[in-house]
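Backbone geometry:
***
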Amino acid sequence: MKHPFTLFLFSMIVCSAAKAQDIHFSQFFASPLTLNPALTGNFDGNLRVAGNYRDQWPTITRAFTTSTISADFPILTSRMPENDRLALGVMGYTDQQADGVLKNNFGSLSIAYHKGMDEEGYNRLSIGFQAVYCAKNLNVTRLKFEDQLRSDGFTGITSEIFQNNQLNIGYFDLNAGIMYSGTTASNTNFYIGASVYHLTKPKESFRGGQYYLNQRYTVHGGVYFSMNEQVTLHTSGLYQSQANAHEGLLGAALGYSLGSEYADNPATVYAGGWFRFGDAIIPYVGLEFGKFRLGMTYDVTTSALKGANQARGGFEFSLIYINKPSGEHSLPCPKF
């Protein structure tokens, strides 16, 4: 392929500049199964459904749009020790680049075991695995090449030859992760985890090349505690690396309870922000009402890319539903 000039190539360049190869969310804490397989089933309830949508750099002809939907839940609860949990998770997500020139679709199944380390189950060690199938499609009819360039634009005929107008690849992949969560004597809750994605280093090439997907290593953690009866502080961050691409985020959110925790539908509002080092400031607002938690962020680009995207980094939305039967023993679980 001879130096294509196309939105697809441009999106690959800016993807590299964004210091990430895999899809990623500013609200990484609201997309548990793309962050760490050990988060499967690590919530206070018996069913969690999560949805995420991200439109990155909307001024650049829909450069990246990403959507996910997932569900995870405990299984074999009657056979597990009181403070242990075995959980399954399923997820589907799609990522389109350069206004749909490249489409990536994924389906995954994850499993995790959470081992209680004390009598109350407030300290737990978790390990998880995730199997993924990936299908990629490249629409070559929308590509433009150097030999098509004329004085009036890309109006020439390319010498590039493709057997099909749609190029497709598919492969299986495997991810793994571990996490420890606990509560101190002062009722400060914390967690720390690590994950490795692309353990199999799958081959990715539309035309028979020898490109293998690099493994992504992630370390993440957080601390949260009550400041008084109505206010809770949540802090979290992550660092991840994939080949020569690196990403670090750090931030916090304050949660303010609008009513008694014993009310039928307690509500909490959240406000805060995260900082992606060398790239963007990310303000966050959220609302938790009953079994639902809604979050919204907007990336404000601070890097040199702000000239190309007019400082508009992208919108992101998350919605999480957690079902918890009344009277069930509460456990401190990560929210951010």
